[in-house]
Amino acid sequence: MFKKLLTLLFVFQASFIFAQQGTIKGVIYDDATGEALVGAIIKAQGAPGGAISDLDGAFTFSLPAGTYTFLFNYIGLSENEVPNVVIKAGEVTVKDIRLVSEIQSAVKTNIVVTATRKTNTENALQTMQRKSVNVMDGVSSQAFKRTGDNDAGAAISRVTGISVQGGKHVFVRGLGDRYTKTILNGMIIPGLDPDRNTVQMDVFPTNVLDNIVVYKTFTPDLPGDFTGGLVDIATKAFPSAKSNSFSATLGYNPSMHFNKDFLTYKGGKFDWLAFDDGTRALPISKTIDLTQKEYDPSWNNPELTTLTKKFGKTLAPTTRLNGPNMRLSYSQGNQFNKEGKTYGYNVALNYSHETEYYEDAYFATFIKAQSKDVNELLINRSTQGPIGNTVAAWTVLAGSSYKKGNNKYTLSLFSTQNSESRSGLLKQVDYRENPYTMFRNNLEYTQRNVTNLMLSGKHLLDSGKWEVEWKLSPTVSMIDEPDIRLTAFEYTDDLVPRYELNEGVGAVASRTYRNLFEQNYNAKVDVEREFKMRNKLSTKLKFGLLETFKMRDFEIRDYRFRVLQESKFTFTGDANELLTDQLIWTPSRGGVQDSGVYVSGQPQLNNTFNAKQNIVGVYVMNELPLTNRFKTIYGVRVEQARNYYTGQNQNRQVMQDSLLLNKTSLLPSVNFIYNLTAESNLRLSYTKTVARPSFKELSNAQIVDRISGRTFLGNDSLKQTDITNLDLRLEKYMEKGQVVSVSGFYKQFQNPIELVAYSAANPNDFQPRNVGNAQVYGVELEGKILIKSLSDTNHVTTFGSNLTLVKSSVEMTAGERDGRISAARNGELIGTNRDMVGQSPYILNAFVNYTNNENNFDATLTYNVQGPRLTVVGVARNPDVYEMPFHSLNFKTSFAIDQEEKWKGSISASNILNSNRYFEYVSFGAQNQLFSMLKPQRAFSIGVSYSL
């Protein structure tokens, strides 16, 4: 009995002592380089034991509650101490430590080392920028929290030279999407639109992001297919302590929400979850060929009636009162340390439901007059009317990590589902030789999914001399556009108003089913070794390989609903009456052709294809310090790209695994960095990169935008674009995140790909084509300064601005120049060069931020605008199309609701200037005419978040 009581007493005492313990966690950095230190020793005065930082520089030290002075030691750096650190029982104290050398310690009197909270990462990012071998900019997690940004699209918009299109797609230095690439944790990942290089940034909630970095110069360890910039999104793998957060945001646009005229249509019961429940699925077998003679009404086949009735009868949009935009997010993470092993996990869920209503959307086609004496453009077609969009989306981001000794393994899953339902009630007027008026009912639904799995490992070998990192990343992408419904009636009012189906002018009833399925497999290995040279400086040798394999299946199925003996019908213009039972064709018992509506198949063999791409890359690079202040980073990357195509071209020639692209690219890189002072650098780089056509571009597909009525035509003869880059940058970093920089850049393009009007006879068809060589040069000016007169210990006011000025020039091909000369106006001189597609002549970002650290209050006013940029190249009488400047002025404030700062609120206003999105035709001596116009109007939102 006594032994049992003694045992229970011992267990109780041990439990009590354990309960009185606390934990300190953090990461140790070299203050001079910003790099994490592996193998640093951590001790607490007066306490037994200690800890050693792991391969990420992270440490964990558990000890009894109390106040301690911590000692940090690392080979080559002086001992640093942090006094008065309070360790609380049962809690985790998070400290990041920046160690300084003996020389730095002598200079930095009074303070030996500074310990900061882990969320304060702007200085760390600034150090990363200063020490990077690339010209780079970025935004930290501290900035996310300070400004209250919900997603990566809002957060990255303040980076130098960045513009974000529609809050989603990133453009760097004014260059279009083709020359910007997005990667996730260092690996290639396709976005919701696999035909774009950039991923939709708004699918990444900021509560799981560590930082977003934009590389503006190439080094061989990066993918070779970017020119403007490479956006690297880094997620948090190891939270230092358990965290839970939840946020909710409501958005309101006075012209769009609580609008009883909002256009929509009845879909599936799971539309709010971004899934179609099968309501829009193709109701008949794909194997049925409706072009066969037995499906002609003259055969009196009753199966034709059965097939026609299987299609849904909803063809016209309806109106309803819509609510506000809504966004919800939740994240949780934690880290566990046991017996020298570390486990960590992160989970984030994000959901949004938003609506847009454009009361008077406008699309038009203008052409030049036949007579060269007439400068003003002539209207060819106009399409106008209300459009309603409903977008539902959710994102799951989950990750887990395991570390032991010099080995680390990470597994992460990223999946996003997005759906968009569009409804339009549009009036189309053609003004050609045979003018007509058409009323169109558009019902569309697009469902997109991207799921990415990533497994990675990091290992330190030979006492840390070798670092090996590998990653495997399969991705599956799907885009399903089921049951795109267009019902258009030609309207005539000569004597008696009539609504008729007339295929001759495009007044048809059609159902289109488009499906895309793409698989991506990526694997890479990077190996790095650091050597000590005779002058005691360190040089780094890095080499590795990458392989990417992509495979896409794409198909379009198109069905038309025709009317037999249309003269027997009098349509009212209500599209829903078309497939009512009384109007559907039925066979006649007497064998005589009856009247009615029936379905007919339209084969789309040229729109059904399989495409494959294989890219293999190897590289080697060396970071070589020539002196204490001057170093060079040089190397080369070799990439081989092959594209295969299976399908049918426009001449109905069958292609079976035809090799459309086979190019081996040698991509050298030479970078020089000279440290003018400890806080300023002069950089010079010379690199070569590429831009490859997308699967859609390098195809024979003909894809119609049912809303605008415009057609995209693939081009299986496209070549890869080769680019030469030259960059110069002078940068100075100052305390408290202040920075000033001046950059210059020059880029030369060989065989650039641009979207061109197909022909003078087809002004609504557009095709990507290789054009003549191009060059782009420009400067970037950036400043981020502290307004001292409005700042003190607890109040900080910061002003920042960056300006990018760019000049672009493209050599016109002989065919393009001849076409421009043939349609030139009197007095117009046609040169040999023009602007480059997608290139803005200027980008301006500016912000003012006020932070009250005492009350945890933050307010930010931001402004962004980019100059007019060429979007579509005109041909002959088709003028060029430019995207006009959009003046985006936005305000956001965030504030603590409770004293413990667990609850926070936010209020924001966007598009304060009420700017509209215009695309315009531009022609010599003529007034600009609208290509398209959307009016987004002002919007407001209010949000609340909870963090534990």
Describe the structure.
- By secondary structure, the protein is mostly beta strands.
- The protein folds into three domains: 18-116, Immunoglobulin-like; 122-236, Beta Complex (Ferric Hydroxamate Uptake Protein, Chain A, domain 1), CATH 2.170.130; 318-900 and 914-947, TonB-dependent receptor, beta-barrel domain (Maltoporin, Chain A, Beta Barrel).
- Helices cover 7% and strands 56% of the residues.
- It is built from seven helices and 51 strands.
- It has a 22-stranded antiparallel beta barrel. Strands 1, 4, 7, 8 and 9 form a five-stranded mixed beta sheet that branches.
- A hairpin with a 2-residue loop joins strand 38 and strand 39.
- The longest helix is centred in the first third of the chain and has 18 residues, at 2-19.
- It is globular and about 105 Å long.
- The relative contact order is 0.10.
Helix % is: under 10%
Distance between the termini: 45 Å
The CATH H-level superfamily of the largest domain is TonB-dependent receptor, beta-barrel domain
CATH class of the largest domain: Mainly Beta
Overall average residue pLDDT:
84
Rg of Cα set: 31 Å
Largest sheet: 22 strands, antiparallel, barrel
- What's the CATH topology label of the largest domain? Maltoporin, Chain A
Q: Which outline best applies?
A: globular
SSE topology sketch:
Blueprint: H1 2-19, E1 21-30, E2 41-44, E3 51-52, E4 58-64, E5 66-74, E6 77-87, E7 92-94, E8 96-99, H2 102-107, E9 114-116, H3 122-131, E10 136-140, H4 141-147, H5 152-156, E11 162-165, E12 169-172, E13 180-184, E14 187-188, E15 209-215, E16 229-235, E17 243-252, E18 262-264, H6 302-309, E19 318-320, E20 325-338, E21 341-367, E22 378-404, E23 407-430, E24 436-461, E25 466-492, E26 498-500, E27 509-532, E28 538-564, E29 596-602, E30 609-625, E31 630-648, E32 654-677, E33 680-691, E34 702-705, E35 710-713, E36 721-733, E37 739-750, E38 753-759, E39 762-770, E40 774-786, E41 795-811, H7 814-822, E42 833-834, E43 842-852, E44 857-866, E45 869-872, E46 880-883, E47 888-896, E48 903-910, E49 917-922, E50 929-934, E51 939-947
